[in-house]
Specification:
- The chain has two domains: 194 residues, 2-enoyl-CoA Hydratase, Chain A, domain 1 (Alpha-Beta Complex); 55 residues, Orthogonal Bundle (Lyase 2-enoyl-coa Hydratase, Chain  A, domain 2), CATH 1.10.12.
- The radius of gyration is 19 Å and the shape is globular.
- Strands 1-2-3-5-7-10 form a six-stranded mixed β-sheet, with helices on both faces.
- α4 crosses α6 and α10 packs antiparallel against α11.
- It has twelve helices and ten strands.
- The two termini are 36 Å apart.
- By secondary structure, it is of the alpha/beta class.
- Bound molecules: 4-(N,N-dimethylamino)cinnamoyl-COA.
């Protein structure tokens, strides 16, 4: 792999898009390597992923404008499909994915962060969908996911104006869950991933599936999806141990209240 590094620490996997000279812009090779990396994740041991960018300046500065500038219609479509397939793979990946946004998250960079389950960012992060200024529409799901995350009005404003927003505004509109000084971002992302990783893995996976699939259908159908995935947890070791701990009054494993860090 030239542009992706993948490390496993205990039960979490850390994927770094490593093309800092181009501010980690997504070219075909980055997308292919990311796809192959996701395929290689050992789902028997890894319970949550962190996705970040190399360097101190950029998470992902978008799709590679140099590569895109010469594409024919057919090649543009193929490039779009490659991106959409890998973004969708991230979104539907069986385990949670946390985007640790360490700088620019523009165009495809904002879009890849929105394919992740949770976004946290550094104080220097900048988000935006600048595509209309380049004569295109957001093409990696931006018109769909941004509206679902921050609401229709704010998504339309960001997309129509092509205006970038800073970390504090991203936090205010709910695009990110927390903001950290740059040097604290990755440790915070790992800590969050570890907090997820200690919970019952089948239950966590089923929650992701229920939330994602439920959002695509009406409430009556969504409740049926939830029922099925709820039922699916029973008779698992996790469910027996989790409920057993409670009944045995295992204080160590009982409910803890932990505040999320907010800025
Ligand atoms: N693509 C390629 N190279 C990029 C890049 C990008 N998106 N962004 C930055 N770079 C490269 C620069 O060319 C420069 O390379 P060298 O000149 O050193 O070789 C290096 O990264 C450093 O960039 P700057 O010198 O520009 O650094 P600055 O700090 O001055 O500025 C910046 C940082 C992020 C403000 C600026 O680089 C910038 O505006 N970059 C472009 C941001 C942008 O517009 N991103 C959105 C791209 S559009 C599709 C699906 C999806 C998409 C399209 C189609 N289909 C379905 C077909 C997605 C589109 C996009 O993402």
């Amino acid at each position: 792999m030239e542009f992706i590094t993948y490390e496993v620490e205990e039960k979490i996997g850390i994927i770094t898009i490593n093309r800092p000279k181009a501010l980690n812009a997504l070219n075909s090779q980055v997308l292919e390597e990311l796809d192959a990396t996701l395929d290689s994740v050992d789902l028997d041991t890894v319970r949550a992923l962190v996705l970040t960018g190399a360097g101190e300046k950029s998470f992902v500065a978008g799709a590679d404008i140099g590569e895109m500038s010469t594409l024919t219609k057919a090649e543009g479509e193929a490039f779009g499909k490659k991106g959409n397939d890998v973004f969708r793979k991230l979104e539907t990946f069986p385990i949670p994915v946390i985007a640790a946004v360490n700088g620019f998250a523009l165009g495809g960079g904002c879009e890849i962060s929105m394919s992740c389950d949770i976004r946290i960012c550094s104080e220097n992060a900048i988000f935006g969908q600048p595509e209309v200024g380049l004569g295109i529409t957001p093409g990696f799901g931006g018109t769909q996911r941004l509206a679902r995350i921050v609401g229709v009005g704010m998504a339309k404003q960001m997309i129509y104006t092509a205006r970038n927003i800073k970390a504090d505004e991203a936090y205010r509109i709910g695009l990110v869950n927390a903001v950290y000084p740059l040097e604290e971002l990755l440790p915070a992302a790992k800590k969050l991933a570890q907090t997820i990783a200690i919970n019952a893995p089948i239950a966590v996976r089923n929650c992701k599936k229920a939330i994602n699939e439920g959002l695509d259908v009406n409430m009556d159908e969504a409740i049926v999806i939830e029922e099925k995935l709820f039922g699916d947890c029973f008779e698992t070791e996790d469910q027996k141990a989790g409920m057993g701990n409670f009944l045995e009054k295992d204080k160590e494993k009982k409910l803890k209240v932990v505040p999320f860090q907010n800025k």
